[in-house]
Automatic annotation (TrEMBL):
Record-given protein name: DUF6533 domain-containing protein
Transmembrane segments: 20-39, 51-71, 77-99, 111-138, 158-185, 214-235, 241-260
Keywords: Membrane, Transmembrane, Transmembrane helix
Organism: Suillus plorans
Keyword Transmembrane helix appears in the UniProt entry: yes
Pfam families per the UniProt record, alphabetical: DUF6533
Domain of life: Eukaryota
Domain DUF6533 residues, every copy: 22-67
Length: 302
């Protein structure tokens, strides 16, 4: 049954609903803009290359992001689809992170087993809590001063469960960052031992991996902190600043999942393509020089 009220005490809730919808549209436009911006690279580095697990993960995350941007504009009507998409994308990003760390640790089987076990534990805990949160969340229709709002009421302990989910993902991301930094330090130390181009190539790949990882991790930390600090205060707060931060956090959340997530793959492939292009150009120049030398030598002999 719908709750109808013209009480001015509901006005902050109305303001938050309207403000939130505007920021949702902005978040969707940011994701779409990034897709248009990188579409050329996507064609060259993803669609035209040999299909692998990373190719599938990139495409699914990228286009779930576009679909997510449309769904989330509908707001709480699609709340279950939104929760499901968040869980699926978080799992896929975890798989990407495991693949990157596995490659950085030179395909160590022990490291792979360790990462898979840790991430399985995190995923099972978060999946179970998400299912519980969805189950206890009760939809309510509010008609406040003529404005229709779909509100999802829930028990007080739900916020604690949501905080546990974020804490689990924060622990996983911190572990992944520490492992990445550690192996990168080892690789850069190896550069002092190698004077060849092999050592330089290893260092270049490590630099690209660390740069994209740090950027992704920074965005994740910002989203997590805002989620853990702002959301609990939002329940009883009428502050416009708190409401703006909560709404703006949705843009950061979309950027972290659907822009920086796919770029974890795109940045590595772009760097690899540049190395291949430079190598081909160098080989072509050496071939031209060799042909000129042969021609001069033959002419002098004649």
């Amino acid at each position: 049954m719908a709750i109808v009220s013209n009480d001015p005490s509901w006005w902050p809730t109305i303001t938050l609903g309207i403000l939130y919808s505007y920021w949702m549209v902005a978040a969707g436009l940011v994701v779409l803009y990034d897709w248009v911006l990188t579409f050329g690279q996507e064609i060259e580095l993803i669609w035209r290359k040999r299909w692998t697990l990373m190719t599938v993960l990139y495409i699914v995350i990228r286009y779930i992001g576009i679909l997510y941007s449309v769904i989330i504009v509908l707001g709480d009507i699609m709340i279950y689809a939104i929760h499901g998409a968040n869980l699926v994308v978080a799992t896929m990003l975890g798989v990407i992170m495991i693949a990157r760390l596995h490659a950085m640790y030179r395909r160590s089987r022990r490291m792979l087993i360790f990462l898979v076990i840790i991430f399985l534990i995190v995923s099972i805990i978060c999946g179970a809590i998400t299912a519980i949160v969805i189950k206890v969340t009760v939809p309510e229709e509010l008609i406040l001063s003529g404005v229709y709002i779909c509100y999802f009421g829930s028990e007080g302990i739900v916020q604690l469960w949501v905080s546990i989910v974020w804490a689990c993902y924060i622990s996983w991301e911190c572990l992944a960052l520490c492992l990445s930094v550690w192996v990168a330090i080892k690789h850069f130390r190896d550069l002092r031992r190698f004077g060849s181009s092999t050592g330089s190539t290893i260092g270049d790949y490590s630099r690209v991996l660390i740069q994209s990882h740090v950027l992704y991790f920074t965005s994740f930390v910002c989203v997590s902190c805002l989620q853990l600090v702002i959301v609990p205060k939002l329940v009883n707060s009428k502050s416009m600043g708190i409401q703006i931060l909560f709404s703006a956090n949705q843009i950061l959340f979309g950027v972290q999942l659907f822009i920086l997530g796919p770029r974890l793959i795109l940045s590595v492939r772009e760097h690899h393509a540049e190395l291949v292009a430079d190598f081909d150009e160098e080989t072509s120049m050496n071939s031209i020089v060799f042909q000129e030398r042969v021609h001069v030598s033959t002419s002098s002999t004649v």
